[in-house]
Design goal:
With 365 residues, this protein is of the alpha/beta class. It folds into 2 domains: 3-153 and 296-328, Rossmann fold; 155-292 and 347-358, Phosphofructokinase domain (Rossmann fold, 3-Layer(aba) Sandwich). The chain contains 12 helices and 17 strands. The protein has helices at 17-28, 44-47, 58-61, 98-107, 119-130, 155-176, 191-200, 214-223, 265-275, 298-316, 336-339, 351-358; strands at 3-9, 34-39, 53-56, 83-86, 92-95, 110-117, 135-139, 179-184, 204-206, 225-226, 229-230, 232-237, 249-250, 261-262, 282-286, 322-327, 330-335. The strands form 5 sheets. A 7-stranded mixed sheet has the order 3-2-1-6-7-16-17, with helices on both faces. It has a 4-stranded parallel sheet with strand order 9-12-8-15, sandwiched between helices. Strands 4-5 form a two-stranded antiparallel sheet. The mean pLDDT is 92.
Length: 365
């Protein structure tokens, strides 16, 4: 009987997920005694009744590396340790179904699990490993906020989308003598904002790691105008905040969703600038989920393929409890504890920050 490895994709979708799945399947196909199955919508496919588990062979993954999203679906709500349940009074609570899930995996003949996801997903991986699950992690996030790996696949594609947006805003800003504020994703890390601001030649870049001063931003904007003519581009990360202030967010009332919903910071910044006396015509653009979708660029396909092949090789070698990682120029593995131990913030003293300042980009401070 063939051995089974189960693949799950959890958290937000990300360009390159399908390339990882394809690589796992193609690498496994070289071993006659292994079969790959996919769980629909993260681990929900195991816990749903009836379960939703599909066999993934070479035919099922043919050509999927060029597609965004994930063919087996994903979710960032609930999970085996916090499964949403309806209480008798109509309110929602959660239940730990992890032991039940492990029994179901055993019943399905699954010998190993490859969990593709970001920080939250890999914390689940750690908890499942602690319960005896043979599990391997693959880092996935457009935010690039996992410190154990130099880059995560999907990040470079998100940066490309954000840079394209900056490029397009330049032409309309110049035509109308306007200031455009582009809000990009990243949660508590400013990687997407920083890279796209440098690549797109933005005038101001505001990231969570460097709280901003309105007067510094006003000064930079005013320097870009002469007799009412000129334009400026501001790239702002969704988690950016003013000095002494907090990030803009709203509580999420979606069942099973735990994270705060960041956003609205572009609109807030424009309001703050107007209140501070800046009378320049300003507009906001929120890039939102356009950064998550679409075709992954070549870099992310290559990295995702390396991650997928490496993940299955870890399974073959029985090296469980580890996450695949990229440490230039090598693809390695690190223990889950190291993978989730530290958030990957932008270092305000990094070479890229210095380069940004060196070419005249105002970082808000």
């Amino acid at each position: 009987m063939r051995k089974r490895v189960l693949v799950a994709t959890g958290g937000g979708d990300c360009p390159g997920l399908n390339a990882v799945i394809r690589a796992i399947v193609l690498r496994a196909s070289r071993e006659r005694d292994w079969e790959v199955v996919g769980s629909i919508n993260a681990f929900d496919g195991i816990l749903n009744e009836p379960n939703e588990v599909v066999v993934l062979g070479e035919r099922e993954v043919a050509g999927i590396h060029i597609r965004g999203g994930t063919i087996i679906g994903t979710t960032n709500k609930g999970g085996p340790f916090a499964w949403p349940i309806r209480n008798p009074d109509g309110s929602w609570g959660s239940a730990d179904r992890s032991d039940e899930m492990l029994r179901r995996l055993q019943y399905l003949g699954v010998e190993a699990v490859i969990n593709i996801g970001g920080d939250g997903s890999q914390r689940i991986s750690q908890m499942l490993m602690d319960k005896g699950c043979n599990i391997i992690g693959v880092p996935k996030t457009i935010d690039n906020d996992l410190s154990a790996t130099d880059f995560t696949f999907g990040f470079q594609t998100a940066v490309q989308e954000a840079t394209t947006a900056v490029d397009k805003l330049v032409t309309t800003a110049a035509s109308h003598n306007r200031v455009f504020v582009l809000e990009v994703m990243g949660r508590y890390a400013g990687w997407i904002a920083l890279h796209s601001a440098v690549a797109g030649g933005a005038d101001v870049c505001l990231i969570p790691e460097i709280p901003y001063d309105l007067e510094k931003i006003k000064e930079k904007i005013n320097s870009r105008f002469y007799r009412g003519r000129g334009y400026a581009i501001i790239v702002i990360a969704e988690g950016a905040k003013p000095a002494g202030g907090e990030a803009s967010y709203e509580e999420n009332d979606e069942v099973g969703y735990k994270d705060m919903r960041l956003g609205g910071v572009a609109s807030k910044l424009i309001h703050e600038l107007k209140e501070a006396g800046l009378d320049t015509d300003m507009r906001e653009t929120v890039l939102g989920h356009l950064q998550r979708g679409g075709t992954p660029i070549a870099y992310d396909r290559v990295l995702a393929t390396q991650f997928g092949a490496k993940a299955f090789e870890l399974v073959l070698n029985g090296e469980y409890g580890k996450m695949v990682a990229y440490r230039h120029p090598n693809v390695i593995s690190v223990p889950f504890g190291d993978a989730i131990n530290q958030y990957n913030f932008v270092d305000p003293d990094s070479h890229l920050i210095k380069a940004a300042r060196g070419v005249g980009i105002c970082m808000g401070d």
